[in-house]
Design brief:
There is one protein chain. The chain is mainly α and about 100 residues long. Helix content is about 80%, strand content about 0%. Helix 1 runs antiparallel to helix 2.
Length: about 100
């Protein structure tokens, strides 16, 4: 059913974020300890430039809203977004727990 698939997708999304944050923290800490803070800024800048290039290469037409235009948000979508946010917050303690066991 759609509800079951939505729950699975939300769980996978939360786990992906938790894993990304844990691994990202480890990689960032190790990178800073081996190469220094200045190298981290350079690496960060290069990755942002690569991300911008990738986004720029995505084809399609996009509409930019003016200040006086409103975007309608459906009530059920707002509830789902709130639910996903709460579920993601549950993973923060897990990330902190795993960081205790990793030499960062």
């Amino acid at each position: 059913s759609d509800n079951h698939e939505l729950k699975q997708a939300t769980l996978i999304n939360g786990l992906a974020w938790a894993l990304m944050l844990a691994i990202g923290g480890i990689v960032a800490g190790k990178t800073e300890s081996y190469f220094g803070l200045e190298a981290c800024y350079v690496i960060d800048s290069v990755t942002y430039a690569i991300s911008a290039l990738i986004l720029w290469l995505i084809p399609g037409e996009y509409k930019v809203l003016n200040n006086n235009e409103r975007v309608s948000v459906r009530k059920d979508k707002a509830k789902q977004t709130t639910k996903e946010g709460i579920i993601n917050q549950i993973f923060w303690p897990l990330i902190s727990f795993f960081k205790m066991f990793v030499d960062v």
